[in-house]
Amino acid sequence: KEVLLKVENAKAYYKLEKATVKAVDNVSFEIYEGEVIGIVGESGSGKTTLSNLIFMNMLKPLTLVDGKIFLKVEGRFEEISAMSREEVKRRFWGRDITIIPQSAMNALMPTLKMSKYVEHLAESHGIEPSELLRKAEERFKEVGLNPLWLNRYPFELSGGMRQRAVIAIATLLNPKLLVADEPTSALDVVNQKVLLQVLMQLKRAGIVKSIVFITHDIATIRQIADRMIIMYAGKIVEFSDMEKILEKPLHPYTTGLLNSVLTPEPEIRTRGISVIPGAPANLINPPSGCRFHPRCPYAMDICKEKEPELIEVETGRRVACFLHQGAKEL
Ligand code: SF4
């Protein structure tokens, strides 16, 4: 498998005047070409910060405090963490990496027709606008939209259609990696399904190679993800093949998340509230040792003192929990 992007020991903090929020704290992972990775966690687990990290969208007060991020461009790794946000944006956004932000449906300016966004994209990449507009017509068809709607204003399209229009435009330059941050959370069930189909279709057609899908709802991505990153309090607690996690989650937090999916309460699922007792960790002053220990039913003495590392416990399976690292011998 070819690595497309790798993150090594990254720490991304929000440096506020009076405090530092350790939103992503020492995480490492890689994204392979051709895979769909789900990033799952409660609100405040650091998953959106992680998505910003992937495409170096570091806007103050968010700062990359430590670590490296490499993106493969034309067969060579470029260290994007050594570049400014502006440079990464100019060189790689749209072409190599594209993001569908959480608020994509509402991010469009009401006074601009959809075609204007295509023209802007063309201009910023030195492409003839008419050429890209032709491509946009095709792409609109591919995502199930009428190409004539390029001449419409965003408010003339429904929420689900706007979302698809954003995806169509964001993928016009055939980026290798598409990062989608909670793209389905504002949609109804029917539109959620359509959106997942659209994303998978773009991947099958080779328009995008890999997809990172951020969500608080495991149920959304269980049908499409190859691997899953589970975040808790700024840390990756489990990173495994999807089937293995569904078959038997190893980290107690993953078990809790899966149980919340099974809850009959749709309220709990849609709002991303876990059925795990206790409140999410405070990221300004996180708990000592394993950050999950105040909520973990299996917490041992060592869990309060020492931080479990994310280690490979079997092929295709990484877990940060002493239960799976021979805690008794430690
Ligand atoms: Fe629970 Fe300890 Fe494992 Fe953390 S390391 S999840 S506290 S058992």
UniProtKB/TrEMBL annotation:
What are the BP-aspect GO terms?
Answer: peptide transport
Gene3D superfamilies given for it? P-loop containing nucleotide triphosphate hydrolases (3.40.50.300)
Record keyword Signal present: no
Q: Which Pfam families match?
A: ABC_tran, oligo_HPY
Give a GO molecular function annotation for the protein.
ATP hydrolysis activity
Key word ATP-binding present in the record? yes
Domain of life according to the entry = Bacteria
The record places domain ABC transporter at: 5-258
- Full protein name: Oligopeptide/dipeptide ABC transporter, ATP-binding protein
Organism equals Fervidobacterium pennivorans (strain DSM 9078 / Ven5)
